[in-house]
Structures are given as C-alpha cells and as structure tokens.
Amino acid sequence: MQACAGAFRALSWRTEMPPVPESRPRLANAERASSGRYSGWRLLREGLTGHRGWSPAWAKAVPRPRYRVVIVGGGGHGLATAFYLATEHGIDDVAVLEKGPIGLGNVGRNTTFIRSNYFHPNNIRFYDFSLKLWEGLEHKLNFNAMVSQRGTLNLFHTEAQRDLFTRRANQMRLLGVDAEALSREAVKALAPLVDVDNGRFPVLGGFLQPRGGTVRHDAVAWGYARAASEAGVDIVEQCEVTGIARDGQRVVGVETTSGFIGADTVCLAVAGHSSRLAAMAGLKLPIETHVLQAFVTEAVKPVLDVVLTYGASHFYVSQSDKGGLVYGGALDGYNTYGQRGTLPMAEELAASAVTLMPGLARLKVLRQWGGVMDMTMDGSPLITKTPIEGLILNGGWCYGGFKAIPAGGVTTAHLIARGSLHPLAAHLGLERFVAGRTVDERGVGPFPYAH
Amino acid sequence: MLRIPCPWCGERDETEFRYRGDATKVRPAGDASLAVFAAYVYERDNPLGWHIEWWLHVAGCRKLLKVVRHTLSHDIHAVLAPEDEPVLPRQESGR
Questions:
Q1: Residue pair A180/A172 in contact by the 8 Å Cβ criterion
Q2: Which CATH number characterizes residue B20's domain?
Q3: At a CB cut-off of 8 Å and minimum separation 6, what does A169 contact?
C-alpha cells in the first residue's frame, strides 16, 4: 500500500461524516464525577477544610464497545483533538486510548518551548495560530499551565547568519508576527550569562520573538485531559491498540488490549510511533523515528529569563520555574525507538553550553532523557486523511510537536468533524510528497535525520 | 555510544561515521510512474526491530557500509560491504 500515491489519487475522499447512530447509552459520562471549577476561592476553601473536597481531575473511563470517534494516543495532540471535537464541534462520543498513563509520552518529554519564528509562511501562520491559542489556553481549560511568554532569543555569530535571521524576521513581520533585532549589547543586557566576546563564536546579536516562551508540559496534558473528560470524552488509560480493523478500504474500529472498539473515525495521534500504527492499516508513511534528548541541571537562582538558542551549534536552553536549566540539541542522527539518552549527545551539548555560557561549567547535570519523534521527509508535520476511509493521521511532528498542540488539536478536530482540511493545515496533507509541494523549512531535502 | 566494527578499520566510535539512512530502497527504472518514484524517495518501513542502513565511515576508510542494527536495543548484527545481502536475525532476538 503506498500512502503517498493513494493520497494523491484520492481527491474524491468523502467530505462528510457518516450518519451517526441516533441513541446510545451514555452511562459512563452520566456517572462521571466532575472535578469542579478551580479557582483561588476554591483553593482557600479547601485549604481551610483539610483538602477533602478535591476529586480526580479526569475520569478513568472503561471503554464502551463503540464510539463515533476513537483517538489513538493520549498525548497533547490526541487530548487536544478530543477537547476541540467536544467543545467546538459538539462531538462528545469520543474515546482517547492511551497505552500507558496520561503525560508520560512525548508531551512530558519535550523542552516545553512555544514560539512561531519560522520562515515558511504556512509554518508561520500555523504556529502563530497555536501561539495565540496558548495565550488564552489557561482560561479556556481552567487549568494553570504556567504559560510564560518570556521571549525566544536566537543568537547569530556571523554576518551571513544575521542576514538569514533578518530574512526570517522580515517574513514574520510581513505576516503580523512579532520579531525584533537585538544588538550585541542588548543580548548582553537580556542574558548576562552569555559570553558575547568568546573567542570561538563571538555573538554579533540576536533575534527576539517576545511572545515566545515556555509552558509547563505536564499541566498541558492534565489540563486538556481534565477539560476533555469534563466535556464528555472517555479517556481510557492502559489500553494499547494492537490492530486497526478494516472493512475493505474503510476503517471500522481498533483491536486493543481491552478488546475490540468500534468507530466511524479513527484518528492516530501517536507521533514517534505513527509508522507502526499506520502499518497496522497497511500504510507506509514518509517518516523515520528518531530520538531527541533533553537535559536538566541542578536548580539555581534565576539566571536566564529568556529561551535562548545558540547559533553556532544546535543547542537551546531555558530556566525552569524550579530553577534547573533545561536544555536540548539535535537528533542523534540514526533511526531509533530507544527513549533514552546517549553519551555523544551529552558531551556535545555540554560543550555547547559551556562555550555559550562559561558559568554553566559549575553546574551539575541531574537528568538526561529522550523522546522518539516522527521525523518526516520534509521536516513538517502531517494532519491528513489517509487512503483508508475514516482513518485520520495527526503526526510527523519532528521538533515542533509540543508548541503545536493547540493548533494541532483545532485543525485535526476540524478535519474529523467537517471532513475537510482546516485552511491553516491545508498544506500538511500526505499528498504533498507526490505533488512536489513539500514544506521544507530548512531546504535540506528528503533526509529526515538532517532536518 | 555505538561501536561500529568497520570491516576495513576495526571497531570505531559512531562519531567517526555519518548515517545515510535506509539501505533497502532500490531506485526504480527511469520510466517508472510518479507514484513509484515518490514511494522510493519518501516512504520508509521505519521498523521497530532490525534495520538495514547505510553508514559512511567519513573519519576512517571513507567507505560506505551496510549495517544491520536494531532500532530499539541498538545492537549491531552485521557490518557488510554495500553489495552484500544481509541475513536478518529473528526479529524477537533483538532485545
């Protein structure tokens, strides 16, 4: 089965949801206890009454035999898709199936950055839409996700690099997105720890996206899970999908460790493992799986209040609210499903950290971990129909999955509910690979390990 | 750190090599259809298990090697010359 070819052919895929069976028992939802609204008053009241009034943030659902929509993967994108399906499209006959507990996959493994400083106009529009959703997310979810727009600062070290960044910043400003050029002195003032005069790669200046920043990633998973559960979605943990059931070229449900679950639409939101799930439906994707690593140092007093990227190697760092410096780098470079760190990367990133900010040499690294990602052939994600009718794919997130969670959820929910591509994600279909419309932000060609 | 036993140079660190991707893709005939070429260029098996892949020994003999490596355990089963046909171990023995 050739997914790309199929996607190109099938311009005549259905554009509407199949008819919904009229009545079905909603016992699981009716019996669901609400966690109630969170507020300062409630915290005060609970504090005075021994914290006995809290209930679980989301219901641990037992799967029913059939749903209108089954979402495979209870990470950021799966939960967000379920939440927007229920709240914006009125489709609450939805189950999210997660093979482990909520929050232990990639949604809890990334370096928590949000930003929209891309070059390709479609990428800028998509990621800035996401950034705008982040800005209002906590009110929408009634959950403190600690969204912190502390700014994203990209350093440059050569004049050629400055020109490249200027071009990107201009492109962003043309589309109404914030970007500012900073002098060397301004960089020094904003991030005093940076050795702007270092002999190896002196800093010439930087580009700042003031609206960029960080979000507490666990809270994103919990917040979406709670809000989706409240809106009527069944969140089923410890339920691994082992097969995708088809009737000819139409999906009819999934085989799981909890038995068969029927569905009109199955949405895969399992980035890192999209190839394996797609293979269950006989599809081959333009994806390789690679590991990205992150590190955190011991906690120190505030020393860095901006997200910083180094221009001389692939290295990015921010300081968490606990005080640890969280940093990460590039891919290891070879296909892997191993969710663990490796020593060559530990060494390379430590070298980058110390070249950029020599003061960090005094810090101890506490933890190192890895998350495996779908690296697509053009470095851009997939929000797409597939040649299997009723099978929707949200995946291929490469480096950009976390920051895209709200936009990924909105556009994937739109695709599931309306049957048509959301205008902001219209360029993210599988057919782009056959049609020659790849969205290759860095222009490196079909080499997933190079994006 | 992967240690790759180069048939020409002996066992070396992964940092001496450059990964060059899936070694099972075969270029279609020149008159093949667009869809066939797209599948060749873009689609990958991306297995969780044994993977046949290219590594270029850039800081050594500069030869292209065909390596059979497990994508979860990272065990290296065989390192061969480009023209050799690897025999895959049983899938479950990888870890």
A1: no
A2: 3.30.2270.10
A3: A117, A179, A180, A181, A207
B95 falls within a domain? no
How high is the ipTM of this complex? Answer: 0.94
How many helices and strands (H and E) does chain B possess? 1, 6
> Across the A/B interface, how many CB contacts are shorter than 8 Å?
85
Q: What is the pLDDT of residue A12?
A: 36
User: What is the domain extent for residue B54?
Assistant: 3-25+34-87
- Segment A359-400, tens digit of pLDDT: 999 999 999 999 999 999 999 999 999 999 999 999 999 999
- Distance between CA A190 and CA A358 in Å, rounded? 16
Query: What's the CATH number of domain A3-18+56-109+217-286+378-450, 3.50.50.60, 3.40.50.2300, 3.90.1150.10, 3.20.19.10?
Result: 3.50.50.60
B43 touching chain A per CB within 8 A: yes
For the domain covering A150-211+289-376, report its CATH number: 3.30.9.10
The pTM score is 0.91
Antiparallel, parallel or unpaired: β A205-209 and A180-183: antiparallel
In chain A, % of residues over pLDDT 70: 93
Interface test with A, best of B3, B33, B44, B58 (most A CBs within 10 A): B44
Residue A338 to residue B72, Cβ atoms within 8 A? yes
d(CA B55, CA B14): 9
The boundaries of every CATH 3.30.9.10 domain in chain A are: 150-211+289-376
